[in-house]
Specification:
single chain, 86 residues, mainly beta, Immunoglobulin-like, four-stranded mixed β-sheet, 45% strand
């Protein structure tokens, strides 16, 4: 549970290597965050690393189920967490 205006951080922790790709979804729709080091006016969703998604200044529109999908040449793993406002 996050208060409106606060930040939320999602960690997609996996073991094994190599990691070929990490894909993030919110409410079953692709999230296209800005990569660390890049800036965009008004962008509140950033990748702090390939496996860490950060949302600053959380609003009602950010609520929902977040999922990460991690792939390599052998398998795919996924995790999920719900962002709720307090």
């Amino acid at each position: 549970v996050v208060n409106s205006g606060d930040s939320a951080t999602f960690n997609c922790s996996v073991t094994g290597s190599p990691i070929d790709s990490v894909h993030w979804l919110r409410n079953a729709e692709s999230v296209a965050p800005i990569s660390d080091g890049e800036t965009s006016a008004g962008s509140r969703v950033r990748l702090l690393s390939q496996q860490v998604l950060h949302v600053s200044g959380v609003t009602r529109s950010d609520r929902g189920m977040y999922q990460c999908f991690v792939r390599n040449d052998r398998e795919t793993a996924q995790g999920s967490a719900e962002l709720r406002l307090g």
